[in-house]
Amino acid sequence: MEGQLYKWHGYISGWTQKYFVLQNGSICYYNTKSERDKNQPAKETLNMGLCEIVVDPHSPAQWELRMPVESKVWHLRTESTPERHQWIKALGSAKACLLDTSSLGSFSRSTSVESSSRLLSYDQNLVADDQQGPSSLNGSIHFEPIKENLDTANDSGNGSMNNLLLTSDTSSFVNVNNTDEENNMSQLSNQCEKTIENIRQLQQCLEGQHSSTHIDERIQQVESAVAALSDLMTDCKQMLAEPMDSTDRGQEIDDGIPSEHSEPDHQNLDQSSPPSSDEKSRELSTFFTSCVTDFGDVMSGLVKSENQPLIPTELFLDACQCYMEFFERFAGTLMGPLKTDIQGNIDKITKVINSVPGYKYLQDILSKEIVANQHTGPDTGTQALLWLTRGLRVMCHFLNNCLSEDSDTRGDTSTSLVSSYTKFLAKHHNWMVQRLFKMGLKMIPSFENFKVSMIGEANLQALKASGDTHWEQTAEKAVIEQGLVYSSNMGKVTSLIHDVYQQYNIEV
Ligand SMILES: CCCCCCCCCCCCC/C=C/[C@@H](O)[C@H](CO[C@@H]1O[C@H](CO)[C@@H](O)[C@H](O)[C@H]1O)NC(=O)CCCCCCCCCCCCCCCCC
Fold first, then answer.
1. What are the residue boundaries of the structural domains of the chain, listed by start?
2. Which of 39, 204, 410, 451 is deepest in the core (most CB within 10 A)?
3. Using CB atoms within 10 A of its CB, is residue 250 exposed (0-12), middle (13-18) or buried (19+)?
4. Which of 246, 231, 418, 396 is nearest to 323 (CA)?
5. Taking the domain 2-99, which CATH number applies?
6. What tens digit of pLDDT does each residue of 135-156 get?
7. Is the Cβ atom of 21 under 6 angstroms away from ligand 1?
8. Any ligand 1 atom below 6 A from CB of 345
């Protein structure tokens, strides 16, 4: 297949018409048809076997060809949707042929079956797209590169589902057994990974010395990936919410887990003295009580001195290490860059204190490095502790915003986090990191999911099974009360560290 298409060439050139030729599993383009007729070399070529085709239902004539291995993205456009349909069908077939034959090599037969079934489902989606206009279920359609196809084929679902925990009410999973939904979830999972990969590439780009045009491209990639992800998340949330209505409640009872409305299991009740609601919520284990060392322990370990209390370095690092578990509970890849950064700072401080003796208290790190004028480099203990503390302040403020009775944003994870980020971190970030955060902040889990993550699915199921008819209130109470205790101690510790930095005129 060949013909004219518009290709995006950046903000200066915009959409430019080029002559595209799809043959032998590759697509290339020339400036004009006459260049092609004169057998001049093509401007650029992509191997379809290594490309993803990404269709955006919100832009009916537009699509992208992405080649992750070379970090290339072609934004393409036709005059009309049917024309796009033709091109994408041809591109999809070229890709499927490659998967079935030339690229198969040692790949198993199931891979080609997988690829054809994906092609089929893609075709159906596309037809639906053409007939009904943009469908909310078809956020974007991907043909993954060969290796990713294999990953997906081998994935029984659990790995992909983990990403979804980020946004979904996990209890709904019991009732989900539908191919469309699985497709959507699989797309969501792929898109999550893709978004993170784009963010990672942008980060690399920021750390390196690439030209600003390159960075712009990367930002554009991240933005479109986040937009696609956000659409998919909305779709999946809707799909997962639906089956919980009326008819499906029976499933919960069949599984032995009483629903909110079912009668308590009397055999499970302690006849003599049923635990009160307060006791139950205190006993319920959450992230906040599961830390082997928390910031309360740091406060208990403070050592009195003339000016201000000394903060024991090891206790503090242990509490920070346990705090990392907070991010693990969200199971999605969204938190990846944050976790890396926080863990990096814990490791940097650990390295400093292990290098020579004499860093028993956090104050020692600053005093020694500042005296030696070695406190400004990115790997210094002073900088690592500074950034670690900034993150802790965001977390502490977020928990208060989200959990405290006095807060205007109680129960609203998104607004709570935006306000905490704006107050404590945004001013320390350049505009590009701010943009990344702003995009990430749009995707954070709801309060409902936050509570589930803090309690953990197993604990929650055990609570439901215990016959507590008010298990939802018990669970919420536990998260709120324990979370506020945790953040109160965290706040006390960060406030002490803040004072230490203030002594040296360093803004936390
Ligand atoms: C919290 C969820 C929001 C999701 C946002 C995800 C999008 C993130 C995209 C980019 C992340 C990049 C993170 C890294 C940023 C760094 O550039 C920055 C500076 O690094 C420091 O540089 C120093 C100089 O080189 C160096 O010395 C130092 O070692 C290095 O760290 N780092 C930071 O800004 C620190 C970030 C810490 C952020 C902590 C946030 C804690 C948030 C807690 C609340 C989470 C609530 C979760 C949501 C729960 C949902 C209901």
1. 2-99, 192-237, 287-504
2. 451
3. exposed
4. 396
5. 2.30.29.30
6. 222 223 333 232 223 233 222 2
7. no
8. yes
